[in-house]
């Protein structure tokens, strides 16, 4: 570790200033060093983890490796953060020497989960600073208003009050409607206020609408693809879509405090060892780096920069960052854009709320592609998916490099032709499995066919898309959701559910591939990072309904136990 610190000691501050100029960051970190006895030299071909890492002997376990040549072993040995041996208890114990011994007591161990699309910083800030207006547990607008009033009472005058509610909560409250602008005005006229229904639909009070420049229809700064609902007189009702980029973020110190307070419960305790994150602004990136450097963030981050919210595409290209720049704890990943938004007007009417023309998108994608940047494209409408494929097809025709551009949150792949086109273009897709047990209605079509995506070799990536909208989430629950049959509470269509092993791959090796990190993460093999999740029971052979009860009992990052035991 001494050599690592010496290696990055000169010039690091200069680089960081340059990156922050554009809201970007290289993020080389020195981790949290541990004093150790001199460990054995690593085997040939196994490099030392340049971030944090320990020596650990995992024994007496059922380790699901996801490696076809050695699918299950009893033990694994980690040296300086990387796996150097997988095999039997006897083999690992013979080589353990001074490594800490972790007796799994017969429990099942899987690769550490990779949340391949999470708004890490935003989710932590939502718990720390925003009013929790979720339904359930709240059941009425009256209860939501009481929660907002309590939040107003402790918020300095002039600061934003943000309430977080679930998708379409108007159908879940007793009143069966969203609140009105006037009702929010009655709670406060001294704070701009927004109550989110999801994150793409918000209800705003008058001050918030005025502060964001949305009040006057003639001069409104409504973003393309967004909707500000107005009454017959042209006055806003309060309901609007796609206004989230306009709401101010939190300070660097506030973000750091929120992450330190809540990242463990939200992510680490769920067995998540890596996150592909989407910082809301450049200060989020700064907070991530400072926490990584001080050793206060036991999770790996790969950051995708939102254009234009965090930086411009040209500014990022001028910076010269290549995807993967950084170390195992913090890396630059690529670019995130929104092709569409919520896929509707916020009050129940579907629409293609596109933010680009096809020509504009083609030009942007080609520019990013020629610069070597992987693109994440939010597309929840079928038209958005077609736009994304058209743009990538044109970029690939000009420059046929396999950059694994991704479509995020696909829910409307309407034909096998669409799926095969995505595969032919070398694109990847993410899905957001349900985080609640479903209750299908007899006689009605139900769920999604996840199996077809796997059979067509799309290898979908599962994500939480954590923002604070869904307060309770975990990869294990997401796995249960796609494995369980409809009558077991699953979210798959009849016959469209997955095996446990394929569902696990969605959160591990396929997720690692989505970030070009499959050589280091996603399975348990010599040379890979020593990241593991210890489960409460062996999931194999269990009924889908039984999988909902699985828990993570320990999380191991680079050979260090960072949660449980």
| Total tally of structural domains | 3
How many helices? The count is 18
Termini separation: 26 Å
> What's the Cα radius of gyration?
24 Å
- Shape, principal axes of CA atoms: globular
Q: CATH topology of the largest domain, which one?
A: TIM Barrel
Give the mean pLDDT: 91
Percent in helix: 25-40%
CATH superfamily of the largest domain: Metal-dependent hydrolases
Strand content: 15-25%
Largest sheet: 8 strands, parallel
What does this structure look like?
This protein is α/β, with parallel strands linked by helices and 565 residues long. It has three domains: 31-112 and 560-564, Urease, subunit C, domain 1 (Roll); 120-246, no CATH class; 310-524, Alpha-Beta Barrel (TIM Barrel). 30% of the residues lie in helices and 19% in strands. The strands form four sheets. An eight-stranded parallel beta sheet has the order 8-15-16-17-18-19-20-21. The protein has a six-stranded mixed beta sheet with strand order 3-2-7-22-23-24, with no helix packed on it. Helix 15 crosses helix 16.
Which descriptors apply to this entry?
globular; disordered N terminus; 24 strands; 18 helices; 3 domains; alpha/beta; 30% helix; six-stranded mixed beta sheet; eight-stranded parallel beta sheet; single chain; 565 residues; TIM Barrel; Urease, subunit C, domain 1; 19% strand
